[in-house]
Specification:
With 341 residues, the chain is α/β, with parallel strands linked by helices. It has two domains: 2-40 and 122-194 and 298-334, FAD/NAD(P)-binding domain (3-Layer(bba) Sandwich); 52-115 and 195-294, Polyamine Oxidase, Chain A, domain 2 (Alpha-Beta Complex). It is built from ten helices and 14 strands. The chain has helices spanning 12-22, 85-89, 101-106, 117-124, 171-174, 181-191, 261-271, 299-311, 319-322, 328-334, and strands at residues 2-8, 29-33, 71-81, 110-113, 134-136, 139-143, 148-151, 156-164, 196-208, 218-223, 232-237, 242-251, 279-294, 314-316. The strands form two sheets. Strands 1, 2, 5, 6, 7, 8 and 14 form a seven-stranded mixed sheet that branches. It has a seven-stranded mixed sheet with strand order 4-3-10-11-12-9-13. It starts with a strand and ends in a 7-residue tail after the last helix. This is NAD(P)/FAD-dependent oxidoreductase.
Length: 341
Amino acid sequence: MNVDVVIIGSGLAALKAYSIISHRRNFNPLIIDFNPLGGVFAPLGFAYKYPKIPIFIDHDVISAFPSCNFTCYPIEARVLKEDNIIDKIKGFAPFNVQRLWFYELAKKKIACFSPQINECVLKSLSIYNYMIKKIRDSIRKIDVSNQVVVTAQGLTFRYERLVYTWPLDILIKMISNVGASDLLTLLNDATNKIRYVSIYARSYIVYEKTPNAISHKIELYFHGTKASRSHTIIKVPIAEHTILLYALTSYSEYYPLLPGIGDKIHSELRKHKVLTSSMQVLDYSDVNIVYGLLNIPPKEALEKVCEELKKHNIVLFGRVAEWREYDVPSLLFKHPLLNIV
């Protein structure tokens, strides 16, 4: 099957790419991914469509989301246990990362949050779920010489352009033909230089039986020692009796994820009285963000890969494809438009 533009991925970058391409010259893009639309933006569950991870927007840019109902809160940060909190957030990895999102949040005075951020992002991009052409599948190989994508289920798509939004380090496993030896050499060089720290998030929807106990602010708790696996706990009030509660831990080859980590985190929340007897857990979810924090690789290595890929009509787009930390407004509104059509 011939397709104008194949987009690999379904997260925020893929949706942004889809929006740009579908509004240009009547191109018909196709998204291929095994995940639901939205990636980490996808809602927590069928009953409660809240974000799986906390995504905050700065007060000065919320006007860019006219369809979103943001609530802005003051931020209060507390330290449960002192020590090297930054090292713990990095999963004790011996390299620097581009952004320490949670630590940065603590330094702000105010942040804005919307429980329906997934829906309002789609609206801001002028696309809706029913409009999006998508195939739930994975990628077996990309034949860059013949511009063909083969999926795990055996579907074949010949493309004019390809937008790649999945992690950069797995692209090399998909490129199959020998004609791309220069590309494979550059990709191999770049992927040998990239590192990441993973994040595990336990997310709760909590009903507070005593509404006076709800603080109308974002509460951050940091724990810096190895006595607790959680390094950051975030509480966001979203209604008179309702709180979204997120507990985050980082892991890496230097600080592996423990078996039964979700139950351990739950016990820690009870121990630190973040979850109390007056709170009823309505629902919870566990999320693994494999590429949680990205290291700082040499810029030249990434630029060479991008240039070589463009020769084969492939564009890297988005956070983990470009290996560059973007906040939501930067990716949606400030990122240069895709120069592919």
